[in-house]
C-alpha cells in the first residue's frame, strides 16, 4: 500500500502542453477514480504514474519515493489495460508467472502468489487454458490476476470494463470493489462512466480539458458540484440549468425565470444577478395546476421504475423531470412545473458554483 503524490506535474506532446502544473494526492489504500469525457487527460495521467509516459516537470511520489525518472518496472505499480494485453500463446498460469520469473523470483514464492490470486479471483479451473479459450470477462480476470501476483503498492486500471457487456460490467464492478475491500491496496481507476465512478470510488477526481475540476467523495461531487461542468457531467439524466435573475429581498433570495415566474431560494444558497439555477431532474415536479411555471412536454421515456419527461419552457429553456413509477403525462401536453430548490446550486457565467466563487 502506498500513497501517490503528483506534485505540480506538467506534460507536453510535441509543442502542445496537455497537463499543466497539476497536483493531486491519492491516500494510501484509497480507491480513486479519474472521471472525465474523452480527451480530458485521464489516461495520460495514469500512464504518467505507471511510467508509460514521461513527466516533463514536477515530481511523482509513490510511497514517499520520488519516481518520475524511475523505470516503469521499478515503480512497484501494476497496470490493468482495457484490452487485457495477455500473451495469446501462454496459458493463464504462464501469463501470471511470466513477469515474476523475469525478475528472478523463487518458484515457491511464485506458486504461492499464483494460487493466492487464483483463489481471490476464483479462477483455479482456468489456469491451464489459453486466452483464446476464455470469455471476455475471464480474460479480464486473468489480467487482474497478473496484476495481483505482483503484490504491487498500487493498482492502475485503465477503463478495464469497457469491453464487457452491460451485465458483466456490473458484476465485475462489484467484484473489483470487493477485491479492494479485501486487499486494501491503493487503486487508481480510469473511466468515463459516471456510474462506475459513483459506485466504486472512495473519491472521484473529475477531469475536464486535462485540468482537475473537483476532487471529492461520490456524494460531494453529486450534491455539491464545484462547477457547472461537474454538475452537468455527474448525474443521469443531467442536471437542469435554468437562467435566472437572483435578487435579495428582505433577506430572502428570489430567482426570477425569464417568463417572469419567481422561485424562493433556501437561505444557504448565495448569489446575486444573472445566474444559472441548477436543479436535478428528480427535484422537478410535474403538476396539472399550480406549478411555478409551465412548459410543453416534448418526449416521455418510460423506464419501468421511473419516467423521464423532457419539457421546454416558454422561453425555450429545456427542462428534464424524473418521476418515480409510471407517469400519465403525454408528449404535446402543456404542464405545470415545480422545482424543489433544497440542494439546488447557482452557477455564475464563469461556470463556478457560487459558493466556490465566493470561496476563491
Ligand atoms: N501520444 C499523444 N500524442 C499527442 N497528443 C496526445 C497523445 N496522447 C494523448 N494526447 C492528447 O492528450 C489529451 C488527453 O488525452 P487522454 O488520452 O489522456 O484523454 P482521456 O481522458 O484518457 O481520453 P479517452 O477517454 O478518450 O481515452 C488529448 O487532448 C489527447 O489528444
Keywords:
360 residues; OB fold (Dihydrolipoamide Acetyltransferase, E2P); Rossmann fold; 9 helices; binds adenosine-5'-triphosphate; 25% helix; five-stranded antiparallel β-sheet; ATP hydrolysis activity; alpha+beta; 35% strand; elongated
What does the model show?
By secondary structure, the chain is of the alpha+beta class. It has 2 domains: 4-227, P-loop containing nucleotide triphosphate hydrolases (Rossmann fold, 3-Layer(aba) Sandwich); 232-359, OB fold (Dihydrolipoamide Acetyltransferase, E2P). The protein is 25% helix and 35% strand. The chain has 9 helices and 20 strands. It has helices at 42-50, 92-102, 107-120, 136-148, 166-183, 194-200, 218-223, 228-233, 354-359, and strands spanning 4-13, 16-26, 31-35, 57-62, 65-66, 77-80, 154-158, 186-191, 203-208, 211-216, 240-249, 252-257, 262-264, 273-279, 284-287, 293-302, 306-313, 318-324, 334-339, 345-347. Strands 6-7-8-3-9-10 form a 6-stranded mixed sheet, with helices on both faces. A 5-stranded antiparallel sheet has the order 13-12-11-14-20. Strands 15-19-16-17-18 form a 5-stranded antiparallel sheet, with no helix packed on it. α2 (92-102) crosses α3 and α2 packs parallel to α4. It is elongated. The two termini are 34 Å apart. The model has no long low-confidence stretch (mean pLDDT 92). The structure holds adenosine-5'-triphosphate (ATP). The site of adenosine-5'-triphosphate (ATP) has 12 residues, from α1.
Amino acid at each position: 500500500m502506498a500513497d501517490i503524490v503528483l506534485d505540480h506535474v506538467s506534460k507536453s506532446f510535441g509543442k502542445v502542453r496537455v497537463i499543466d502544473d497539476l497536483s493531486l494526492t491519492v491516500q494510501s489504500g484509497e480507491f480513486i477514480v479519474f472521471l472525465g469525457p474523452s480527451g480530458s487527460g485521464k489516461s495520460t495521467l495514469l500512464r504518467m504514474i505507471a511510467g508509460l509516459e514521461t513527466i516533463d516537470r514536477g515530481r511523482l511520489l509513490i510511497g514517499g519515493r520520488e519516481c518520475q525518472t524511475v523505470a516503469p518496472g521499478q515503480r512497484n505499480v501494476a497496470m490493468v489495460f482495457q484490452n487485457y494485453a495477455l500473451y495469446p500463446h501462454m496459458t493463464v498460469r504462464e501469463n501470471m508467472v511470466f513477469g515474476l520469473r523475469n525478475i528472478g523470483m523463487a518458484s515457491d514464492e511464485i506458486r504461492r502468489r499464483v494460487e493466492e490470486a487464483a483463489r481471490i479471483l476464483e479462477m483455479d479451473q482456468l489456469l491451464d487454458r489459453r486466452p483464446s479459450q476464455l470469455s471476455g470477462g475471464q480474460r479480464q480476470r486473468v489480467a487482474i490476476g497478473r496484476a495481483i501476483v505482483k503484490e504491487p503498492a498500487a493498482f492502475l486500471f485503465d477503463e478495464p470494463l469497457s469491453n464487457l457487456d452491460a451485465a458483466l460490467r456490473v458484476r465485475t464492478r462489484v467484484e473489483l470493489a470487493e477485491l479492494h475491500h479485501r486487499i486494501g491496496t491503493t487503486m487508481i481507476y480510469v473511466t468515463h462512466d459516471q456510474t462506475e465512478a459513483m459506485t466504486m470510488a472512495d473519491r472521484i477526481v473529475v477531469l475536464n480539458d486535462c485540468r482537475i475540476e473537483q476532487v471529492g467523495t461520490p456524494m460531494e461531487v453529486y450534491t455539491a458540484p464545484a462547477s457547472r461542468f461537474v454538475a452537468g457531467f455527474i448525474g443521469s439524466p443531467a442536471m437542469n440549468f435554468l437562467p435566472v435573475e437572483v435578487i435579495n429581498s428582505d433577506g430572502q433570495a428570489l430567482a426570477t425565470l425569464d417568463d417572469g415566474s419567481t422561485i424562493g431560494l433556501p437561505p444557504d444558497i448565495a448569489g446575486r444577478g444573472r445566474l444559472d439555477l441548477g436543479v436535478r431532474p428528480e427535484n422537478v415536479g410535474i403538476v396539472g395546476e399550480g406549478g411555478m411555471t409551465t412548459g410543453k412536454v416534448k418526449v416521455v421515456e418510460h423506464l419501468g421504475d421511473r419516467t423521464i419527461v423532457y419539457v421546454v419552457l416558454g422561453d425555450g429553456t429545456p427542462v428534464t423531470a424524473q418521476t418515480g413509477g409510471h407517469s400519465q403525462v403525454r408528449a404535446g401536453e402543456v404542464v405545470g412545473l415545480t422545482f424543489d430548490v433544497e440542494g439546488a446550486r447557482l452557477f455564475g457565467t464563469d461556470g463556478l458554483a457560487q459558493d466556490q466563487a465566493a470561496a476563491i
